[in-house]
Amino acid sequence: MGAASELCRELRVLRAAAGQPTLRELVRLCAQQNPPITISDATISDWFNGKGVPGAESTRAFTAIVEVLGSRAERSGTYQKVPLGVWTERLRAARQERGARRGGRPVAAPAARGPVTLPADPGDLFAGRTADLDDVLARLTPGHGARSVVITGMAGVGKTALAVRAAHHAREQGWFDGGLLFQDLRGYSYTDPAEDTAGTGRRGVESPLEPGTVAERLLRALETPAARIAPTAEGRIQGWRDLLAELAERDRPILLVLDNAADAAQVAPLLPDPPHRALITSRRTLSPLPCHRADLATLTADESATLLDLALRAARPYDTRVADAPDDARRLAELCGHLPLALQIVAALLRDEPERTLGSQIDELGDSRTRLAGLRYDDADEQGRPLAVEAAFALSYGRLPADLAGAFALLGSMPGPDFSLEAAALLLGLPEPEARRRLSGLARFKLLEPRRGERWAWHDLLRLFARALPGPHSAAVERLLTGWFELTLAANARLHTPSPAPEPGRFGEVRQAMAWFDAEYPSLLAGAELALHSGGHDLAYKLALTLTPFLQRHAHLAEAVHAARIAVTAAPALGELPAIGIALNHLGRALSDAREHREAIEVYTLATEVYAAYGNTHGQAKSLTGIAYDRSALGEHGAAIEAHRKAVSIFAANGEIENELQSRASLAMAHYEHDEFARAAAMLREVCAALREMGHTMAEARVLINLGAVLDAQGLPEEAVEVLVRAAESFRRTDDRLLLALAETNLGGSLTRAGRPGEAVPLLESALLAFERAGDHHHTAVARRNLEAARAAART
Fold first, then answer.
1. What is the largest distance, in Å, between two alpha-carbon atoms of the chain?
2. What's the helix, strand, coil split of the chain in %, to 5?
């Protein structure tokens, strides 16, 4: 069975397993993609009956169909979803077969009359990249606005493999009668990092080939007589251009593959004009060249697993280690950063030990400190380049100017999954415009990836490489974390003293502080952890505690617990009992929010003992309030009421009026939990009146949410609606999204019970979305339950 017939057969099996969707359904499925895909039912029908194979213009439609149908079929329990990488390999093979046939009969493409100096075709080991290959081939196809192409990407991402695969395809199609020439420009020649005795990672980098030298080699490859090759570099380049013009006049176009270019200046003199084409690969963007750009990302998880599987089965067709342990294959691919070079190295190591499991290889690469050393194979690839990820990265680093090299080494210390321009400026100790220039320079060398909103990201393995480079890392990290702590204080201050009018400073408006926290909290948390592990206990403590209120307030529950644990771990090193008590109370609150009530009680109890040891009654009262809350959550209402009363008594004795009022509100809710509704409502009304008189509108709004719940429980939903509307208005004014969502959830329930479900539905939909985005599963469930009830009531 041919490749096209095999693709048709598998598509039919998939469609049947997915419930035999109609062609109209498949057309609609494509239209629902983002951006929408326009395709006819006749075209899709041709794929399933074998009359046609999806072309380059239909790649997205084909991918969407097999992905959606695969998921649908898998849910049936009778079909195992095929990785997308396998489908793309089937499609590539079918396209290649159909491209070499007409009417079912093989048609030989005209052989190139000129020389062919291409490396071996990667063939079956070229996994994934279907869209990238189609993109490149579309530029090489004669006519159709064809152009030369620059293939860019980080070291080891598969640029050369893509260029060589595309060149072989062009050869098979007979597009370049004049020949197909390959030349390694040695822009990044490989050396062993062990030669770097100074420990800089920058020695032993050879000079790239000069354009004149390359021109001479190309002239010789095209069998130019020695007498016609000029003795000077300028003369050889001119001779190359003259030969290109001659070949164009004779309608004998050539394809030139210039691999491993150092910069645009190395390539520009050699770049051919139409009808000739060039494929250039480089670790730099080469933006000055007037070429189409194909910027390669790492492989997807499915493509990575497929590459690993193909590489193992290339040596032993019945090697089933990937098929037998697909989860391990995905984890191994993740440790390789989905980088083709790393995957090929791991495959080579596994081929040497056919009895070794993928899990064993995972264990070897599990330690990030030694991972790069493990991604090395003592041999070279087909082009003589060492199989070592670290060596490949060292060459990219070795080509950097001194200012970018210094920035690259320091940025390796940056905590978090990505980072902002502001954070980079803090770490580097530079003004933001200069920091941006260096970040942009590293991106041009494909050592950083720009993201939206002035953010930047690393490849995981590049981060490990940078982190191991010498440099003043500790001073830079301290500068960054100190700056982050100051920014966190300022953002917290803006969130807790909101006003409608803009104020001077970094966070002039509440939304700016909120947006900063939303973007930065993963990095801030990683920064606190980094400070803890590097001995910076004071910074770890302060950063974790200033971050915790935002995490708690916006339902990042697991992160809040993690931050509080960092503070508790760091506190003893500060040598102060108050620091320990404060950290314990933060941890107790975080555990309560995460509904770990038993552990929260244990932590709060320890906090009361710490506060008692140095006579801090305020801290004791706070801890007692926490204990009371968790007792209530566990249904221990008598114990909860007793703890609240103790807290109220302490705050009253201390003259802490606002804390006393908040504690009375908590006591009221303990009575509510004990089914004493009237008593709870009366106490909450008193607290609200006192807070309103003091001008504490936000504190009053939080109590109003509880009052609404109590009134609703009393069978007074209209009164509950009245107070909950007031609470929601307060939170809407201050852009407190989660408290607003909580108020809307309760308000929606009360509106439904008041016979106004039509008003409840939009409020509950908004609240549900807010809780889902925050990852607050408990309140998501409550909002969904209220929404279902409102919709049901609205239908009756």
1. 108
2. 65, 5, 30
Those residues whose C-beta lies under 8 Å from the C-beta of residue 625, and which sit 6 or more positions away, are 643, 644, 647, 663, 666
* Partners of 451 in beta bridges: 455
CA 249 distance to own-chain centroid = 50
Q: Is the bond into 275 cis (omega within 30 degrees of 0)?
A: yes
Q: What predicted TM-score, i.e. pTM, was given to this entire model?
A: 0.70
Per DSSP bridges, beta strands 449-451 and 455-457 are antiparallel
By DSSP bridging, strand 418-420 and strand 292-295 are: unpaired
- Enumerate long-range contacts of 714-722, CB under 8 Å, 24 or more apart: 714/677, 714/678, 714/681, 717/750, 717/751, 717/753, 717/754, 718/754, 720/746, 720/750, 720/754, 721/747, 721/750, 721/751, 721/754, 721/756
Tens digit of each residue's pLDDT (9 = 90 or more) over 409-463: 999 999 988 999 999 999 999 999 999 999 999 999 999 999 888 899 989 899 9
The pLDDT value recorded for residue 106 is: 41
- Please state whether beta strands 105-106 and 101-102 pair in parallel, antiparallel, or not at all (unpaired): antiparallel
Round to whole Å and give the CA distance between 519 and 458. Answer: 16
Number of residues in the chain: 796
188 to 118, 281, 388, 532: CA distances (angstroms): 19, 11, 14, 39
User: Helix 677-694 crosses helix 657-673 at what angle (to 10 degrees)?
Assistant: 160
pLDDT in tens, 35-92: 788 888 878 888 888 878 888 778 888 888 888 888 888 887 777 787 776 777 678 7
Are the beta carbons of 753 and 716 closer than 8 angstroms? no
| Nearby residues of 656 by Cβ (< 8 Å), 6 or more positions away | 618
Instruction: Say if residues 584 and 606 touch (Cβ distance below 8 Å).
Output: yes
Cis peptide before 35 (omega within 30 of 0): yes
* Cα Rg, the chain, nearest whole Å: 33
pLDDT digits (tens, 9 = 90+) for 753-796: 989 989 989 999 999 888 887 667 778 889 999 999 999 998 87
Q: Which amino acid is at 730?
A: S
When pLDDT is cut at 50, 70 and 90, the band that residue 242 belongs to is: very high
The tokens describing 197, both together, are 């005795």
Helix (H, G, I), strand (E, B) or coil at 599: helix
Q: List strand residue ranges (DSSP E) for 348-413, in order.
A: 376-380, 386-388
Once rounded to an integer, what is the mean pLDDT over residues 288-299? 92
Mean per-residue pLDDT, 280-290: 93
The sign of the torsion formed by the CA atoms of 270, 273, 277, 281 equals: positive
User: Long-range contacts made by residues 233-238, C-beta under 8 angstroms, separation at least 24?
Assistant: 236/212, 237/211, 237/212, 237/269, 237/270
- The secondary structure of residue 35, as a DSSP letter, is S
Amino acid letter, residue 722: E
Tell me which residue has tokens 């008598």: 638
Give the pairing type, strands 254-261 and 277-282: parallel
pLDDT band, residue 199 (cuts 50/70/90): very low
Beta bridge partners of 419: 456
Across the chain, mean pLDDT equals: 86
The residue with tokens 């302490």 is: 650
How remote is the C-alpha of 415 from its chain's centroid? Answer: 14
